[in-house]
Amino acid sequence: MLWQTGKKDMLDLALGLMLFISALLSLHSKDTMKSGVFFIIFGFLSGLIWVRLEAPDVALVEIILGSAITGLLIFKLVKGSKQKDLKAFTFTRLWAGFISFLILIFMLFHLTTIERQDRIASLVFENLHKSGVDSAVNAVLLNFRGYDTLLEVGVITLAIFGLLSLGLKREAYYWDNPLLKGFSRLSLPFIVFFSLYITYLGTFSVGGAFQGGALLAGGLVLFALAGQALPLKASIIYIFTMAGLGVFSLIGLLYALLGYGFLTYPLELSTISIMIIELSIWISTAFLLYTAYSGKL
Amino acid sequence: MEKLAVLSLLLSSFFASIIISLLKEERVFLRSLVNVVAAVYKLFVISYLIWSVYKGITFEIRYPIVPFADFYLRIDPLALLFVSLSSFLWLLTTIYAIGYLEGSPNRRRFFTFFNLAVTSTMGIALAGNIFTFFLFYELLTLSTYPLVVHRSTSKALKAGGIYLLYTILGGSLFMLCLVLLYVFVGDGNFYTGGNPKVKNWAMENSLMAKLLFYGFFFAMAVKSAVFPLHQWLTKAMVAPAPVSALLHAVAVVKAGAFGIVRLVYELYGVDLVQSMNLWQPLAYLTAFTILFGSSMAIFQEELKKRLAYSTISHISYIILGVLLPGQLSTMGALLHLVNHGIMKITLFMCLGNYAEKYDVHKFKELDGVGRRMPLTTLAFTIASLGLIGVPMTAGYLTKKYLEAGAKSAGEEWAVYVFYISSILSTLYLIPIVFKAWFGKSKEEVKGRKLEVNPLMLIPPLITAFLTLFFGIFPEGPISPLKWIRYIASREYGG
Amino acid sequence: MISFDLGYLIVLPLLASIFSLISPIRVYIALAFSLLSFLLSVYSFLYTLRDNTPLYQWIGGWTPPLGIGLRLDGLSGFFLLMIGIVSLFVALYSISFFNVEYKRQGRFFWFFFFFLWAGLNAFFLSEDLFNLYVALEVLSLTAVILVALPGYKKAIKASLNYLFLSILASMFYLLGIAMLYANYGVLSMSLLSQKLSDTQEFIYALFPITIALAIKSALLPFHFWLPPAHSSTVAPASALLSSLVIKPPAYLMLRLWMEVLPKDKSLEYLSIVLSIMGALAIFIGSYYAIRQKTIKRLLAYSTVAQMGYLFIMVPLYYHGEILKEAVLQAFALQVFSHALAKASMFLSSGNAIYVAKRDELSYMPGFAHSHPFTFFALFFSGATLIGLPLSAGFVAKFLFLELSIKLGFFLHGGIMLLGSLLASLYVYPIWKECFSSHPTKFYDKPIPQLMEISAFLLGFLAFSSGMITGFLLEGIARG
Amino acid sequence: MIWFYYILAILLVIISLYHFIVARNYVKRLIALNILGSGVFLFFITTAKNTNTESPDPVPHALVLTGIVVAVSATAIAVSLILHLNKEEE
């Protein structure tokens, strides 16, 4: 109802304005705690804006990863130190203002040159039936530009082992509260099941591996927040973290050896292989964010 | 087969240096064996090459190693002259060094770079184009730097620093001229009588050609210690005796002089140098260096410094001979290239013996050394007489040809320069000889002849004998005169 | 035989990084896979010589603009060879380094090492702008973690600054891609170059991309993060960083300027600015390098100086009708010689610190007396940095001088010559320390054989590769 | 309406760049970087919407998805480094 009427533009304006204000407040406030809170609001609002711009997949990832998990990480930072952001010298402020103003003018000029044109959209929709997945975004993500995603999963695995190699020995923050403990133990199986559903959903509509993985990570963090260790053995977790990159590159290599070419899924096998890849990404993303929170596996 | 011979000349000492670098420090005998075998092998190859070049066959190797130029080794009479001189003197220096460095540390490193220096000298002699010449010219810098700083005392390090500074500056100037040459002319090969492409290029833009000539000249003058660029030589005296013998008589300084010979005769060509009157200002400069070197030598208390200044002046003999027009002065120059090498190496070896045996470094410590070390001092005397240019010695020959050349070129002033310089030479050499023979030494001579061990005694005696032999029988079988006359005639289109 | 697929060059190191996590057989996996990857990169280099047209491969069979293209031409083949050589010797060095020092970090080092190798191969093969962004991100994050590897405060602070600047640069680069995509709707470089010939809008996108690549390759105004980052980490890591990780952004900048963007006036002025920055980088980098007291900071500043050479070359392309191959040859050889020489020097500095336990130059052990092979490594790689003949550095300088004189850029030629003189000013102290026989400099602690040999071979290769540059550059000459 | 989001994206990029240069403590700089990222992603998604096909162009969506995940990994590493520094300071 609200969508269809002329009031759509009003909604966009309101959302856009609130987004800008929250960004301004988060950046400008002196106390880092306040800027952390505003940053989480900013993340949530930008998720909403993605929905307005008809990008549901991105909205899902943005809200879970962008605002919830990143917000949690920044909170971890802000909770400890009561730092005040000290005032920079006037010279740097002037210099920064000048540079930003210059780029602003520059970018506005560039805006005039952008015109409405159909870029790669039509090509994607034509080849969608050949990609083995119905949702356009996941087709691009896992088939047309699967190589990007391979490197991206690599970045995830890199981040996991980077965090482990930094080896933060400090105990992660947890809240020893029986109610939370009970609730998290009760809800974990449902969260796992639901995130699997989201991952599966990705093949034909909104959803996908990253969103599912982030959801699972939320569950795991909730579980760890209550102070309990994960019920899995350490070596299994170790293999899970390696699963993402391992499975993806093995499949890529397999198809190269079979002669189809690197990461080229034959038509009939493409859906299966994409499913396997999605599962491996699902588990790796989950454990990236879990390690980011707890600092150790 | 010939290709292999030319390459093996170069590679024999290169492999020797690699083998030595792999040998442990304690394997003294094996290391000396490898050294001597490499040197002797080179002499055999050279005798074979002389025999075949005499029959008129010339061979060359050409590999395209770099997009703009190729690696070009070539045997021609001039190259052979320098190759035979340096490899013969190298054999003697190697034997001398083995004796001299008995029991001193780091000989593994010393002989590795010693052989690397030999390789680069061979390369300099055999280079067929200016690019390959430059490759080995700079490799010579690299391989002699560790030799100069071998003692690694703070003084040696400072001397090494200055040496490196001069040679790298010279190297950069050389590189700039090389690039200009390859950009404007595109070909840097040496042709007897001058490179035709360079000639007709020089016809149009003579200013650029003149600048390029001076650039090349001064780049090589750094190594041959012409007046403004000579400080590094006197400072490098801090190196051990075989190194200073090597630097002054055989490798570094001669490489610079040989480069100028190549530049004047084989790149620009004699008639071009004369017609564009390139040589006049440089002749005055080298003449000044001759007088400057000899006069400074008189006041040096340090014996090795004195010889260093004498080298500065005598190398400029060669360059002046090259610059003066006329076949006679060319012959004089090439003759001095050989004779000075032999005589100066004898002097340095004798000084090395004095320093090693009785720790004699200063002029005043020389009293009575002659009586205690008669043979070494005899060699020293013969060599210094040769340097002065006393008849019956090789030195006299060069003086005769240089003066005749100067007269024939109509440059009277050059003749006087040679006279004055030989007088100055007597002033700084004869006092040493007198003090050594007739000076009153405090402790008495006891027991048998207290000479250095044979390894250090024989080389100077051989070279002293050669100075006499070349002087007495200039036309003799092994004397270079006939060979030099043949080269000079080719250069002047004979 | 299995057909040659560019994917192997990326997947093999990735799998190696995964398998190297299995702790018991880590060293054997490391050795086996580094040899295998080295052979693969040599094969791909030889492949470019054999086949004349550049080899294109569309991943997944989707031709651009839909899919991502991998391209193996003369230039990328040459750089793959460079990466292979440096990585192999750094791997050999690290095998003995990590069972002697920093044992705890050794566990994860191999993962980052092979991952870096995969990222570098992916970068030089890729032909798609967004894919280059992800590869750049892979390189930066791995580099950041490698800088933070030792774990003490100085390294963490340096890696944090490095991380912030590299995230900023990546975001700028992404902004540039977004602007290009908004205007032309295409991500692959070859298609982009066709579309760019008529219009003018690419200037806007070029600005953020150039800033981003300048930050990542530590060009002058943005070079502050490099010295602390490269000097505070373990020797093999700083060898990889200094010789390999900061080269891709410079390579991408040059490729964008030469192949993708059309030759037009406004670009020329921007290229002049770049070359001024490059020249300043040489002088200021060398000035600071000469003043440094510790060997690693000296080498880090020398990297800043040597990177300046790469950016001087950009305006050359715009003058006269010279072929772009000539500029690419000089560029590629300069990168090659600096990579090998700098890696060998960092490894030797690792040996120095292993023996002397201190980083200061005055405490550097007199290698000329005690450890001949490390001395030869420093000696040959120093000669390559200065650009003495027979070394690849010399030929690179010669090619560049020839180009700049042919086009009348005497100033650039002069800067290059002056640069090599300055280089000798900061290489000389290292040689002097190697030779000095000051009593505090005698250490009889032997360095493990493998560490010395790998440093020496890298240095010797850098020096002697001058002889085979004709063969090396053949691929690039063909374009 | 497209131009509104474009300007919004540019403004986000500008203010976060300004604050990145001005901010002195690490947390503020990290937040500035994340907002800069969101600005760039907004620019991308608006370009996706700026087509004449009825549903938006999926390629920028995939790119932004990858971008967000990479940004999160970078932030995770940054957070761990900052924690390491704070731990050292105490």
TrEMBL record, chain A:
Residues 17-75 form the MrpA C-terminal/MbhD domain. Its main location: membrane. It comes from the Bacteria. It is a multi-pass membrane protein. Keywords: Cell membrane, Membrane, Transmembrane, Transmembrane helix. It is found in: Cell membrane. InterPro entries: CPA3_antiporter_subunitB, MnhB, MrpA_C/MbhD. Residues 180-273 form the Na+/H+ antiporter MnhB subunit-related protein domain. The chain crosses the membrane at residues 12-29, 36-53, 59-78, 90-109, 150-168, 188-206, 212-230, 237-263, 269-293. It holds the Pfam family MbhD. One of its GO terms (cellular component) is plasma membrane. Belongs to the CPA3 antiporters (TC 2.A.63) subunit B family. This is DUF4040 domain-containing protein.
UniProtKB/TrEMBL annotation, chain B:
The chain crosses the membrane at residues 32-57, 78-101, 113-140, 161-185, 211-229, 241-261, 281-300, 307-328, 375-393, 413-434, 455-473. Residues 70-111 form the NADH-Ubiquinone oxidoreductase (complex I) chain 5 N-terminal domain. It comes from the Bacteria. Residues 127-424 form the NADH:quinone oxidoreductase/Mrp antiporter transmembrane domain. Pfam families: Proton_antipo_M, Proton_antipo_N. The keyword NADP does not apply. InterPro entries: CPA3_Na-H_Antiporter_A, ND/Mrp_TM, Proton_antipo_N. This is Monovalent cation/H+ antiporter subunit D family protein. It comes from Hydrogenobacter sp. The lineage of its organism: Bacteria, Pseudomonadati, Aquificota, Aquificia, Aquificales.
TrEMBL record, chain C:
This is Oxidoreductase. It comes from Hydrogenobacter sp. It is found in: Cell membrane; Membrane. It comes from the Bacteria. The chain crosses the membrane at residues 6-22, 27-46, 75-96, 108-126, 132-150, 162-182, 202-226, 238-257, 269-289, 298-318, 373-395, 407-431, 451-473. GO terms for biological process: ATP synthesis coupled electron transport. One of its GO terms (molecular function) is NADH dehydrogenase (ubiquinone) activity. One of its GO terms (cellular component) is plasma membrane. Signal peptide: none annotated. The keyword RNA-binding does not apply. Residues 126-416 form the NADH:quinone oxidoreductase/Mrp antiporter transmembrane domain.
TrEMBL record, chain D:
It holds the Pfam family Oxidored_q2. InterPro entries: CPA3_antiporter_subunitC, NUOK/Mnh_C1-like. The chain crosses the membrane at residues 6-23, 30-48, 60-85. Keywords: Membrane, Transmembrane, Transmembrane helix. Its main location: membrane. It is found in: Membrane. Belongs to the CPA3 antiporters (TC 2.A.63) subunit C family. This is Na+/H+ antiporter subunit C.
